Amino acid sequence: MPENSDFLIWKESYLTGIKAIDEDHLELARIINKLYEACSFRTEKVSEIYISILKDLVNYTNIHFSREEKLMANFNYPGLEAHKKEHDVFKALVLKELKAIKYNKRVEPFNLAKFLKEWVMHHIAIEDNNYKIHFQQIGADVFK
Ligand SMILES: [Fe+2]
Fold first, then answer.
1. Which CATH number fits domain 16-133: 3.60.21.10, 1.10.260.40, 1.10.3730.10, 1.20.120.50?
2. pLDDT, tens digit (0-9, with 9 covering 90-100), for 45-55
3. pLDDT over 80 (residue 92)
4. Angle at Cα 72 formed by Cα 92 and Cα 34, nearest 5°?
5. pTM of the entire predicted model
6. Ligand 1 centre and the CA of 84: distance in Å?
7. How many angstroms separate the alpha carbon of residue 68 from the centre of ligand 1?
8. 67 CA → ligand 1 middle, Å
9. d(CA 43, ligand 1 centre) in Å
10. Which residues surround ligand 1, an ion (CB under 5 A)?
């Protein structure tokens, strides 16, 4: 059973001030927390609910990452390539885990949820904050 402290608790400091991005990030946090909830259903196999939430995560990160990448490209963010690489690694990792589940390889749902949460929190707090600083410095008209 996940503890309360396992869930992704949203903090004001995660806000970028860019409306669409903040809404995306909140949705990502919701999806991750749903994964934790799905860890409570203990079965032999990874539950179907958990798998469908992981698929939601794939779909939503695809939408969100391309939104961010477009935004960074529009404002010539110098860290775009490195940032995009992080996105690609994350997408590949989630797909790999989905495949592992499909082929009944051992996947620990709770550990996976925890890893994904930590990745997303770190990414928002550090990497996304870096482009926010760039946008502020160049006076980009992206903040609400
Ligand atoms: Fe990002």
1. 1.20.120.50
2. 788 899 999 99
3. yes
4. 45
5. 0.92
6. 8
7. 6
8. 9
9. 34
10. 68, 128
